[in-house]
Amino acid sequence: MSQDLLFFENRLGVEEVSDWILVDQLMIDRFAEATGDRQYIHVDPVRAKESPFGQTIAHGFLTLSLLPLLAESARPALPDGATEVNYGSNKLRFLSPVLSGKRVRGRFICQDVTQKRPGQFQVTTEATVEIEGENKPALICEWITQFLL
Is the pLDDT of residue 4 over 80? Predict the structure, then answer.
């Protein structure tokens, strides 16, 4: 068995937890600018006060896009020369909004590792993004990545 395959298989069933990161209004505004999603609940703090959320919230896709950053601080360093590529997700659900000014962190449990061909591994990970001080997570999904070594 190759050392590369062992790197991934040794993580099977192991929970890895990231550092907390702040989701502030500047991050939300930059995401809105990059995606063109400038809905008032994201970018207009005055108007958002009258929304069901009481203030601006992060885009669901912004929260999802934080998975690579969160995973980087949660897991051991990848083998030298590894390239990670997003492949998709299963069972993605946005459960709770992330209010501007809140911190989030990721919880990751490696569920499956498949060697697609020599030097290429597909990893399915149960990913949860928690919101500091909240009982309900922002999102849950099965996140699928491919690693090229």
Answer: no
Does residue 1 carry a pLDDT above 80?
no
Region at 31 (left for phi over 0; alpha for psi -120 to 50; beta for the rest): alpha
Q: 120-145 burial, b for 16+ CB within 10 Å, e for fewer?
A: ebbbbbbbbbbbeeeeebbbbbebbb
Task: Give the type of residue at 69.
Answer: L
In 3D space, the residue among 90, 125, 92 whose CA is nearest the CA of residue 110 turns out to be 125
List, for residues 31-79, the tens digit of each pLDDT value.
999 999 999 999 999 999 999 999 999 999 999 999 999 999 999 888 8
DSSP code string of the chain: --HHHHHHHTTBT-EEE---EEE-HHHHHHHHHHH----HHHH-HHHHTTSTTSS-B--HHHHHHTHHHHHHHHSPPPPTT-EEEEEEEEEEEE-S--BTTEEEEEEEEEEEEEEEETTEEEEEEEEEEEETT-SS-SEEEEEEEEEE-
